[in-house]
């Protein structure tokens, strides 16, 4: 007895692929791939290889720092300062995460004493920073500029998140906001993350930070929604006197209680 009879359901002539095509509209996961003998259909194999190649390229292709500098400068937040970590090349950066956390030279970073400092780091996906860095920074500035002062933005190459702590000390800011390319996956190669550290200093750990991730519109979090979440975290960190595990994102519960509709547009 087949499963359909056992379940008491009637057979239909619907193509199984029609069923999966509809479900694929709601997820980026690879579902209902089908079979061709003992393997996957050729189209699915080629799609996987293309996604894998895109993820590898996102990690290895260097940041176009000149173009990003022009984009950031156009936002009117001050002339961007460029720094690099102690990793001398992309290959060394990938082999030595510790070097990506240490600055090569911060002599060009001005001490501003501002409320907020922004660091744009290439991280593990320079492509993500090129695709979304300036747009996200613009949304953050629009959301936060009426309440806080900003230091001139810093663009950091071969950067890990902790590099921002050293830069923040040089800037003299109370709260650090790092925009950095996230590790690419087989469904998303250009996702950007935000890391917030209140009272940053060298030696801070991941437990001292808050993260807003999966920023890559239109499929992921939008710039505007990410800016709203971060705004709440900045406000909460300043009230609490610290960031990290003790600071919670309440933006979704606040929105639900107020009747606001949340979308990932």
From TrEMBL:
Pfam families according to UniProt: EutC
Cofactor comment text: Binds between the large and small subunits.
Keyword Lyase set for record: yes
Positions with a binding annotation for adenosylcob(III)alamin: 161, 182, 211
Cofactor(s) recorded in Swiss-Prot or TrEMBL: adenosylcob(III)alamin
EC number in record: 4.3.1.7
Record's catalysed reaction(s): ethanolamine = acetaldehyde + NH4(+)
Location, primary (coarse class): other
Subcellular location: Bacterial microcompartment
Keyword match Transmembrane: no
Coiled coil: none
PANTHER family (UniProt xref): ETHANOLAMINE AMMONIA-LYASE LIGHT CHAIN, ETHANOLAMINE AMMONIA-LYASE SMALL SUBUNIT
Family named by the database record: Belongs to the EutC family.
Annotated function: Catalyzes the deamination of various vicinal amino-alcohols to oxo compounds. Allows this organism to utilize ethanolamine as the sole source of nitrogen and carbon in the presence of external vitamin B12.
Quaternary structure note: The basic unit is a heterodimer which dimerizes to form tetramers. The heterotetramers trimerize; 6 large subunits form a core ring with 6 small subunits projecting outwards.
Name the record gives this protein: Ethanolamine ammonia-lyase small subunit
Protein source organism: Rhodococcus oryzae
